[in-house]
Amino acid sequence: MLRVVIPDDAPAVLAPSRAFERWREQSRGRYALDYYDTLPGPPENLTARIRDADIVINIRSSSKFTREIFEACPKLRLLSLWGTGTDNVDLEAAAAHGVTVTNTPSVSAPAIAEHCLALMLAVARRLVVLDAEVRRGAWPKGFVTQMTGKTLGVIGLGAIGGRFARLGRALGMRVIAWSFHPKPELDFEMVPLERLWRESDVISLHLRLSPLTERMIGRDEFAMMKPGAIFLNTARGAIVDEEALIDALASGHLGGAGLDVFTIEPLPPGHPLTRLDNVVLTPHSAGVTPEALEAGLAMALENVDNFVAGQPTHVVVAGRS
Q1: CA dihedral defined by 189, 207, 227, 140, rounded to 10 degrees?
Q2: Helix H or strand E segment including 155
Q3: Which are the catalytic amino acids?
């Protein structure tokens, strides 16, 4: 019987889901299951939890699957990730140790694209600031920013970026884009990055974190952006030089930012971003809706069954069968 380990369902999202309940019922007798609803903490604790696993279902990106982890877990054949990001996994080491890695692409795209739209409008309309003022008894006057007729620059035209670009176009925005993998079928104007920085009124980031994209956006890039531009990030915090972003916001060069991801998560109390009134912050929650949650968890579990059946799906790295 294959041993499946879930080492890090904290706070619990998998255990209470309908997808997990169905999967456990349907797979009864097929797997020996070890489940943990606390974070493992240090690497040696993660190793202790998964040392005898054939299959690991990973829930939290705070669990890091390093070369040392793979070396210490020779039985491991499959790492099924809930989510799209793989920056917590040494993919080269996984391949070297014959471990297949799967993920759950696209299931959160509608939720994250909608969240991007909400962040953009909240920043442009100063909704958080105005709400607080009205609650204090004030009746502030002043202009807010309209999106119709503005230019939206989308960096990355994957499932999320492409969907958000379509939402921007539906608002009457001119959409320009840059992507590692251009998609002419989406019918957006593709431009060089420097032109995107200079022409966009709103810039939205939709790239995966990798050695190629880490700290890709820094002081030079922010300096090229239009005065008053809005910057959105629902991808990964480490793609951005956070100190440079804070300086651009504090100086007023950037008009505002909508951020769901940060270099350090959770965001520490008193962090400089929390003291800026032209920033709207959310806790890495863009893709966390009941619909996206159930679809993603179901896919992560289906990836396990499909791998065991010899027909692996949503493979990021192929290992041994």
Answers
A1: 110
A2: strand 151-155
A3: 236, 265, 284
Task: Compute, in degrees rounded to 10, the torsion defined by CA atoms 102, 107, 113, 115.
Answer: -100
C-alpha distance across the termini of the chain, in Å: 15
The span from the CA of 288 to the CA of 59, in Å, is 13
Q: Identify which of 78, 70, 68 has the alpha carbon closest to the alpha carbon of residue 101.
A: 78
Number of neighbours of residue 75 by Cβ within 10 angstroms: 12
Question: Residue 10 half-sphere exposure, CB side, CA atoms within 13 Å?
Answer: 11
Instruction: Give the sheet arrangement for strand 189-190, strand by strand.
Output: 189-190, 174-178, 151-155, 202-205, 229-233, 254-259, 279-281
Q: What is the pLDDT of residues 150-195, one digit of tens each?
A: 999 999 999 999 999 999 999 999 999 999 988 888 899 999 999 9
Tokens matching residue 88: 């917590």
Q: Contact at 8 Å (CB) between 127 and 153?
A: no
Domains 2-107+289-317 and 109-281 share a fold: yes
Q: How far is CA 46 from the centre of its chain?
A: 23
Report residue 37 as tokens.
Answer: 């609803």
Sign of dihedral through CA atoms 285, 172, 178, 181? positive
Domains of the chain, by residue range, sit at 2-107+289-317, 109-281
Could you tell me the fold of the domain covering 2-107+289-317?
Rossmann fold (3.40.50)
| Separation CA 189–CA 166 (nearest Å) | 12
CA 195 to chain CA centroid, Å, is 25
Q: Are 48 and 72 in contact (CB under 8 A)?
A: no
pLDDT tens column, 221-270: 999 999 999 999 999 999 999 999 999 999 999 999 999 999 999 999 99
Homologous superfamily of domain range 109-281? NAD(P)-binding Rossmann-like Domain (3.40.50.720)
User: For the whole prediction, is pTM greater than 0.85?
Assistant: yes
